[in-house]
Amino acid sequence: MTRPRDRSRTAGRLARRSVLAGLAGLTLTGFRSLEGWLAPSSRLLPRWEAHDPASTRRLDWADYDRWLAQHVHESTEGINLVDYGGVDAAGKAALETIVTDLAAVPVSALNRPEQFAYWVNLYNAVTLRTVIEHYPVKSIHGIDLPGDLISDGPWKAKLVTVEDEPLSLDEIEHRILRPIWNDSRIHYAVNCAALGCPNLQPVAWRAESLDADLDAAARAYINHPRGVRLREEAGRPHLIISKIYDWFAEDFGRTEEAVLRHLRAYAEGETAAVLAAHDHIHDTSYDWSLNDLRTVR
Question: Which is higher by pLDDT, 2 or 69?
Fold first, then answer.
């Protein structure tokens, strides 16, 4: 999942500081930070509106399922980690074949649910391939590819071609998935290879079970400390939520109240009690460390 990034190169760092300095005097509405206001917006690429409501084609995800089952493992903290360092030549070749086969699919001829599963699975598979190609790295931020003068990371580089159209990860997420489906649960499906991100699922997403699986992913994230937690400050509990809800507040209702309603809709047990007791978001957090089995257990 793409997010605002800190620039590692001097020119980009200075450019970003200039932007932030210019905005420093603004009074922001609600809980949103400057990063939230600078996050990628949802802007449709009309070329990808094409679909066939009558299509009954179902894509075969068996090979991707096998790859994920072999390389994705749940940690003791409930975070799905990838054994990037354990992907051998055969595993790399298998993932390359998965991406190549997906890129060859005539996605415009699919129905909407099948397209949703297609784009999410493609996004995640391309992200996996990109990290593996540049491994070892401590963070996906360490993968600096052409495409953006300010932010680092691979999100703006053209990494896959679908129906003769070169696409970046940013375009798949922010110009196809978000504007076409207008579903905040997209953020629980796409994975940006970070510990702070919602889990990379150990099986491919499927059209026939999308609603249930998206709800389950939302519930899992919100009820994990990555999504919602308390932090003691000056002897008082402060409500801390994921920066995802700041960066993409427009997808969660734009206001602090709307974000809290979304969280409460999926909260259970202790998390539900925490949210019931707090009507103000004090801060947001996110861990950009790589979701790497070799460094996190």
Answer: 69
